[in-house]
Specification:
Residues 83-94 have a biased composition (Polar residues). Helix 2 runs parallel beside helix 7, helix 3 packs antiparallel against helix 4 and helix 6 packs parallel to helix 8 (418-441). It is elongated, with a radius of gyration of 36 Å. It has helices spanning 2-21, 207-234, 242-271, 284-327, 338-344, 347-380, 383-410, 418-441, 451-481, 491-511; strands spanning 24-32, 35-39, 45-48, 55-64, 67-74, 85-87, 90-92, 98-105, 108-112, 118-122, 134-140, 143-147, 153-158, 177-181, 184-188, 194-195. By secondary structure, it is an alpha+beta fold.
Length: 515
């Protein structure tokens, strides 16, 4: 009887021992090509063909020495920190302060979180070499953020969320409002929240079409800027006539609207880009615009002072010369007449023309900076919106060309070298096509959400806005209506100027919806 009891006791003890060691826990589980891949205690990777949504751990339980079944515990993938999970009668608390086993699927990096679920890593820039793990994970609301080895913050999102695949083409998504800034599509969902992925997205680019339309932009810009000059030269249209008044004031409205609606607004959107991070100084864009305004004022003020200084030096010497010639002439005792003096004195109009030329150069600088950006951002926009943007920019270039050409024609004089009249128009005509050529050159590498790109585009937009604000308000608007010929113009000319000014505001404001 005793041997039988001993045998039964040993058998019971043996089966209890088997139950104690039969729980084999697999860790580091993640999805690869739709299959669940886990790591055993020995470090060997094991693949399971099971329906996967999102799993915490997989536990294999041996019910007998010869029979093996698998039991899986699925944990829904949520954005809240995971809680303790009961698995095979034991309680475990998955770590949530790191994501590990990082690997690439194409160009997208995936890691495994503490719950064993695969997550996608979103970073503003990918460090080199690519990290195999991210630590210091924490939650911002419902979003999980971790730190790479350099201390930069990345976002870890569920692998089930929409992710850009290799070679994925950008386009409009249903139920979203999408628009482009700096060639990058920004989409907001129906609830108004903006969706942003800072990685580069491949788009459809018809390069041959872009090269062909480059010359269309060139011709359109040239027509816009040279039309007022040719009208003034060939048809002898007076700068104070109704036609020129309409063109000039329409151009004034275009320039001022461009400064605020296009440049300053886009600069603020650039610096508000989430891929740049939160700015410590919220008024960055407007401060840069103020700097641009001050620089334009400084150049304008200095040029006027130099012109008056040259005038004060030349006028007395010219008058003394005429007096000396008069004293040596015994035929008359009269002083040199005013007509003779004014005929030989070219310094006054020359000084005035020099000041006007400087004002034109300032205006040209503000236009050139943002026209270059227009060319680049037009080209890097995807084919889905390229034609729409192209049509908008055609009108944009035509209107700006008319504004610049009217100002050049208004300062026309026989004392101005004709060649100089064509330098500024030619620069304007070619600058946007040059920007398009640059855009074509960087087409396959351009990422408008790259922080350095955001800073460069935002700074140039804001600075150009400041320049055009000074020129538009001081030189053009106040220069014509407060200090110029429109201050005492007749009612007809005043109404024409006012209507055309408002038309310039409205038309460029409408174009601001697309560009």
């Amino acid at each position: 009887m005793m041997p039988l009891i001993s045998i039964l006791s040993c058998t019971i003890f043996f089966f209890q021992f088997l139950n104690a060691v039969a729980d084999i826990t697999l860790t580091g589980c993640h999805l690869e090509a739709g299959l669940q891949v886990c790591t055993t205690l020995g470090g060997q990777a094991t693949t399971f063909q099971v329906p996967i949504t999102s799993y915490n751990e997989i536990t294999l339980t041996k019910t007998s020495p010869t029979t093996e079944t698998s039991t899986t515990t699925g944990i829904p993938n949520t954005t809240e920190p995971p809680s303790s999970t009961q698995i095979s009668g034991s309680t475990t608390t998955p770590q949530t302060d790191a994501v590990t086993a990082c690997h690439l699927h194409g160009d997208t990096q995936y890691c495994v979180n503490g719950a064993g679920a695969e997550v996608r890593i979103i970073a503003s820039s990918t460090p080199t070499p690519i990290p195999t793990a991210y630590t210091g994970c924490h939650y911002h609301g419902s979003e999980l953020h971790c730190l790479d080895p350099s201390g930069s913050e990345v976002k870890a999102v569920s692998s089930e969320a929409t992710a850009p695949a290799v070679g994925k083409k950008g386009g409009h998504s249903g139920g979203k409002n999408c628009h482009f800034h700096a060639g990058v599509e920004h989409c907001t969902s129906t609830d108004g929240s903006e969706e942003r992925d800072c990685g580069r997205v491949d788009r459809d680019y018809n390069v041959n079409l872009r090269i062909g339309l480059l010359f269309v932009i060139l011709i359109t810009s040239a027509i816009g800027v040279f039309t007022p000059i040719l009208l003034s030269r060939l048809l002898r249209i007076k700068p104070t006539g109704l036609i020129f008044t309409f063109i000039k004031q329409f151009g004034t409205g275009v320039i001022i609207s461009t400064a605020f609606v296009h440049l300053l607004t886009h600069a603020e959107l650039m610096f508000a880009n989430t891929c740049l991070g939160e700015l410590k100084y919220e008024a960055t864009a407007t401060s840069i615009a103020v700097a641009g305004t001050f620089m334009a004022f400084l150049v304008d003020f200095t040029s006027h002072r130099l012109a008056h200084w040259r005038q004060s030096k030349i006028v007395p010497s010219t008058y003394d010369e005429k007096c000396t010639q008069h004293e040596s002439d015994d035929s008359t005792d009269n002083p040199p007449d005013l007509a003779a003096f004014s005929h030989h004195n070219h310094s006054i109009p020359h000084g005035a023309l020099s000041s006007s030329a400087i004002s034109l150069i300032i205006l040209e600088a503000g236009i050139v900076f943002h026209s270059l950006l227009i060319g680049i951002t037009l080209v890097v926009a995807g084919d889905s919106v390229f034609i729409t943007l192209f049509v908008v920019i055609i009108f944009h270039q035509m209107f700006e060309g008319l504004a610049l050409g009217a100002r050049i024609a208004a300062t026309n004089s026989d004392k101005v070298i004709s060649a100089k009249l064509f330098i500024l128009p030619l620069i304007f005509s070619f600058i946007t096509p040059i920007g398009m050529a640059i855009g074509i050159g960087v087409l396959q590498n351009f990422n408008g959400n790259n922080p350095s790109t955001i800073i460069a585009l935002g700074t140039l937009n804001a600075f150009s806005a400041g320049i055009l604000i000074w020129v538009g308000f001081i030189e053009m608007w106040a220069g014509d209506w407060v200090h110029g010929d429109l201050a005492e113009a007749d009612m007809t000319r005043t109404l024409v100027g006012m209507v055309s000014l408002i038309a310039g505001f409205i038309l460029m404001g409408v174009l601001g919806k697309w560009a």
